[in-house]
Amino acid sequence: MDFKNSRVPTLYTDLARTLGGEIDTSYHALEKNSRDFSSCKILPHIITYPKTVEDIKKIIACADEYKIPVAVKGNGNNASGASLVEGIVIDMTKYFNRIKHVDMLGNIINVDPGVSCKKIREHLSGWNLEIPFLTEQNDNDTIGGVVATKNVSPSSFEHGGINSWVIGLSIVLSNGEQHIIEDGITPSGKLLSIYQSLFPLLSTETHIIRGGKPTCSEDNSGFNIWGQSIGPRQLINNIIGSQGTLAIITSIKLRTIPRPLFKKTIRIRIPEYQNLPDCILACKVNGVDNLFMYDVLLENLSSTFGGQDKEIYSSSTPHVLTLVATQSGNDEKALHEKQLRLVKELNLPSESITCMRGDNYLHNFTEPSHVKKLLESYSGQTVIPCITGDGIIVPIENLPETLLAIEKYHNENHLIFNTTGNVGSGHISVITFIPNDINTFADKVINATEACFSIAKKYKGSGSAGSGDGLIGTAFLPLFYSPKIIEIFSKVKNIWDPNNILNTNKKIGVDVSYIKQRILPPDASC
Ligand SMILES: Cc1cc2nc3c(=O)[nH]c(=O)nc-3n(C[C@H](O)[C@H](O)[C@H](O)COP(=O)(O)OP(=O)(O)OC[C@H]3O[C@@H](n4cnc5c(N)ncnc54)[C@H](O)[C@@H]3O)c2cc1C
Question: Rounded to whole angstroms, how far apart are CA atoms 222 and 470?
């Protein structure tokens, strides 16, 4: 790169000269990285594309020296502003995008964090292996983004969170040290001192932590202080879901299992919200692997704008929601019988249930960029689909009241909305269509978000599943957690990142007025 006559600040030209990878400070690159799927807009200073772990260490050293926040970016699909930063962006997708090794016998895959989940799924499928947590929903996410956000997936309710599939991580700490965290490897250096500081903190505060624990295990508020694990597992659990605020993940080792030979999917039309818990229970006891919910609005949009698969969306059966349930197995006949048992136990009129063909059905309702395009095609630019409750998670028995309350809020405020969710885990994602008026946009996004989170609280849930805290959820943490718990989150952050350079302002340190200033309609500039 020729820096002569360049308008790039000297600090960054100096950094670029030391890197094997590249930097970009062009207007186009900064604009592109100023948005994710949230309504926030934050212009970064510079985009870096590290080629090696040594490059990452140099970027962190630079950030630390000049006290500039640094955030990792995967594919930017997060819906809570988690990768937006007024500082340095580390884009992992350009060079950290390899599948490094598949160990067939050990059932292990070792990958770079910037590799897409689709690539992992396709690669494993060639070996007749899979990580059931990863579904079509994650195809456009990076595995680093999924691990760093502790995603909730349609398979979470049967196969657990991504944390149960991660067996080891390589990370770079805020002081530039590189470490491998895995069972059997004793922490050393700064990682050891982190462990030695965390353990007494969490033991001393154990009563407060137990009292403040969220009711739903897939919630991802703050740092994972709730688990009782010790040793390397405790450190891994801290990093998973920390959204790049504690360390930068440079390599991920995951567990795989043999891929089942057969999969069968049914579509279930739910007549009333009240039917939802019983239907989820029937799915659970009949071994459903993947369960996803979408509403009538998304279905109508898919039918109008969804392309060639139109006929699969249509239905004359009255319903408020649809569930998509996939079962799997190696014996086709036994799987068929399992499906018949499920259909029987759902106890719904036969016309409410349809057997689906093909594997790609879920993609049409879950993959973020596809869903975004659908919603935008509906609204044009007069109203903007804004994620106002991506992380809502409530006990399953409270789903009907929660959905009714969300509907009531939107009807009373004359707002169109859409709900989807990994309801097997109690997760709901809410999108509100907000008028595209720069004078009222931020207020309306905040009001709808606050309403959705308050409903989650009322029904004994929380607000940080799905996209995690990011920026938006962090501002609302005081709604769900006592000042003492929030103080423990701050102490955990301080132990890992004492200079507060790693993804600053996520998980701790922002309030509603901070995010309100950064919520802007799509065509507005910072
Ligand atoms: C319409 C829609 C639906 C969604 N549905 C769901 C859902 O059902 N369940 C769910 O869980 N999520 C959902 N999401 C959120 C999104 O899919 C996740 O946040 C996903 O993890 C993003 O992946 P990404 O590669 O785009 O990560 P990014 O958005 O780029 O990053 C996400 C976070 O991870 C951090 N990060 C990324 N890579 C690293 C790394 N190597 N080291 C440290 N930190 C890192 C980033 O700093 C950031 O904080 C949805 C989003 C949208 C827009």
Answer: 10
Ligand 1 centroid vs 441 CA: distance in angstroms? Answer: 24
Instruction: In whole angstroms, give the CA distance from residue 519 to residue 505.
Output: 15
Q: Are residues 337 and 405 in the same domain?
A: no
Number of folded domains in the chain? 4
ipTM of the complex: 0.99
441-480 tens-digit pLDDT: 999 999 999 999 999 999 999 999 888 999 999 999 999 9
Q: How confident is the model at residue 123, as a pLDDT?
A: 97
CB neighbours of 190 closer than 8 A, spacing ≥ 6? 173, 175, 177, 179
State in Å: Cα 78 to ligand 1 middle.
4
**124 belongs to a structural domain:** yes
pLDDT tens readout for residues 104-130: 999 999 999 999 999 999 999 999 999
In this structure, the residue with its CA closest to atom 28 of ligand 1 is 76
Q: What are the structure tokens assigned to 281, written together?
A: 């229970």
- Domain span at 443: 380-518
Which of 249, 423, 467, 508 has most ligand 1 atoms within 8 Å of its beta carbon, as the pocket-test mutant? 467
Which CATH number goes with the domain that contains 278? 3.30.70.3450
From 364, 390, 420, the end of a domain falls on 364
Determine the angle formed by the axes of helices 276-285 and 332-346, rounding to 10 degrees: 160
CA 73 to ligand 1: nearest atom: 30
Residue 308 reports pLDDT greater than 70: no
